[in-house]
Amino acid sequence: MSKTNSAKNKIITLTFLIFAFLVIRITFLLLSFYFINNHEELYNGTFAHDFINNPKLFFNYPALPLSYQYMPFAGGTLVVSLLATPFFFIFGSSIFSLKLLSLFISIIAFIIFFLLLEKFFSLKAALIFGILSAISPPYPVIMSLILWGNHYESILLSALLIFLMFHYWTRNKKENYRYLIFSGLVAGFGIYFDYIFFITVVTVITFHFLYNRGTLNKKEMLLSPISILIGLIPWFFSIIFFKLDNLTIYQLLKANFSPDYLIKKFLNLVVLDIPNFFWIKEFYLFRINVFSNIYYLLFLISFFYFLFTGIRSYLKFRLLPKEFLFVVYIILFSIIFTLSKFTTSDTLLELNLNLHPFRIYRYRFLVPLYPFIIILISLFLAKLKKHIVFIPITAALLIISLASYSDYLSTKTIGECFIYKGYSYNILSEKLASNYSLKKCSEIISNLPKEYRLKLYKGLGFYFAQNEGGFILNKKISQFININYENSFYEGVGGGLTERYKNFNESLKIIEKFDDKNKIHYLMEGIMEFSPLFNSFKDITEYLNSLASQQSDYLYKAMGKGAYILLGPDYINKARSETEGSSNIIISFYNGVGEAIWEQIIDKRQTLLGKKDIPSIFHADYDTTLSKILNSNNVLNKIDKNILPYVREGLEKNINLNNLE
């Protein structure tokens, strides 16, 4: 076949595969919003929204973009935040723009892997990979539409690094050191992007030593470290800005190196977790999940086939098969994950990760494995010369994936990706408080959208108090914060003090020394909001009953408000037995619960775009009234009917007070 025809076939094949890839993911984007909507990704759109609306702010504070990085160690979240800007500018600030960026990253990774397999293996292997990746099982499809800016997006960098290194390994090294240099740049940047990419770097280094049988020339020893260090430049900047905090990942998690635990964790990974993280439809026969195990069995056959052929070639001093790199990655990933402090536990912060929408977190650390599993299966099937064998197997895998989609698609969510905002200010106060002085934080917030400032200032007070304790009260707040937001700030300070000292009595001792008695009211409100987290209902009510009734009234409201927000309706319903016979407690406490529900409704309303910002096709069903949001959330249905009248009273007071419908 001529080179022209070969190139033409490759382009036609790739075009068809991209089309299939897009059809599946656009279907999920429109019909699976419940599963692809995640609050974490919203912060990755906040920089784009703010930069487009007020670019001058970022020129005044050049380091400010780093405060839009979700975690100090998660450089990828900042990268995708920056990349989201043109998407927001062109397509608007809905969550649809975030999904388009995620889809764009997924397509690029898909194309690179296809070209890698076509160039260094065969068009047949690339075609099988393309089909199996385009029509993936549900979990990889869903993850390709969530812009977390870490594990899934790092797949693109893994594909690029391996593609470049294959060029380097298979060409005349004297003429192709540029591939080594580019590989080093990608390796360094990839580590900054997400630390899980380190597994890819170790895989490439390991394969390089095996492929070259431990030999390194002087240029390799010089060029690789230098180019990696250059790629790490953003990481070095983040070390300075975050004061070394980017060196630690999830400080609350601790690794367990006991042999029994590690053996159990490894067995769970290879026997249960890898088969289950595809989210393949359950179909049991003799207590065996048939569909999931068909997929997994084919992977195991492929894995051990290439493991055996690779070891045999190495021991016989033959050229190591390139397929062995993907085997090395899976081995190293399994070992490193087993030794890490991360798990696929079914609980996280008391959340059941077997249930939606939290289920998506359970296997997020395994996502980078997926393309390597599909590549090994594709390379193995491509080895089968008889069409009667590999075509039915490939078709069976596609049918399994397609059959699994029915559990995740619904016409009820169509269009929702266009009506929700693609940004969130929920954690911006914390980021600003960690990186700037109170004065600069206030200056920055004063340049952000007005409708979010009350909450931002409250959050600012909370995090400064949590970090500095009572010292925050020694500052002349009025010099930094507009008088319209001082009360919110002090309310946040009260909550932050209680969070810091884990006891409302300690917080009360601190504010007793505070000079401005007019602000004590708001400090105490904040303290009472957080007190149910750390103190018993009885201890709090005993203190409040010792106060004058006028003062205790608003503090009971604050307590009820915080109890509902922090502990939920179950706590509220259980508290009923503690309030029986105390009419003043009942009315004020449950009025506070109503106020909390009102605030949550307002928060929900703020996640929706204005009607003018969404496609006109969805205008007829677009209802942002409080009653619609309240009914759709069913929040009042969770409240005990005996206390519901008092909760409704608090809710209606706030609705009437704010003249809202």
What does this structure look like?
- The chain has 661 residues and is mainly α.
- 67% of the residues lie in helices and 1% in strands.
- It folds into two domains: 411 residues, no CATH class; 230 residues, no CATH class.
- The strands form two sheets. A two-stranded antiparallel sheet has the order 1-2. The protein has a two-stranded antiparallel sheet with strand order 3-4.
- The longest helix is centred in the first third of the chain and has 29 residues.
- The protein is globular and about 90 Å long.
Salient structural properties:
2 domains, 661 residues, 32 helices, mainly alpha, two-stranded antiparallel ribbon
Write the layout of secondary structure elements.
Elements: H1 3-31, H2 33-36, H3 39-42, H4 46-53, H5 55-60, H6 75-91, H7 95-120, H8 123-134, H9 138-143, H10 154-170, H11 177-193, H12 198-211, H13 218-231, H14 233-241, H15 259-276, E1 284-285, E2 288-289, H16 290-315, H17 324-339, E3 347-348, E4 351-352, H18 369-383, H19 387-404, H20 416-419, H21 428-435, H22 438-445, H23 453-468, H24 483-501, H25 504-511, H26 517-534, H27 537-545, H28 549-574, H29 576-579, H30 583-606, H31 626-633, H32 644-657
Antiparallel strand pairs: 1-2, 3-4
Membrane topology: Multi-pass membrane protein
Keywords: Cell membrane, Glycosyltransferase, Membrane, Transferase, Transmembrane, Transmembrane helix
GO molecular function, one term: pentosyltransferase activity
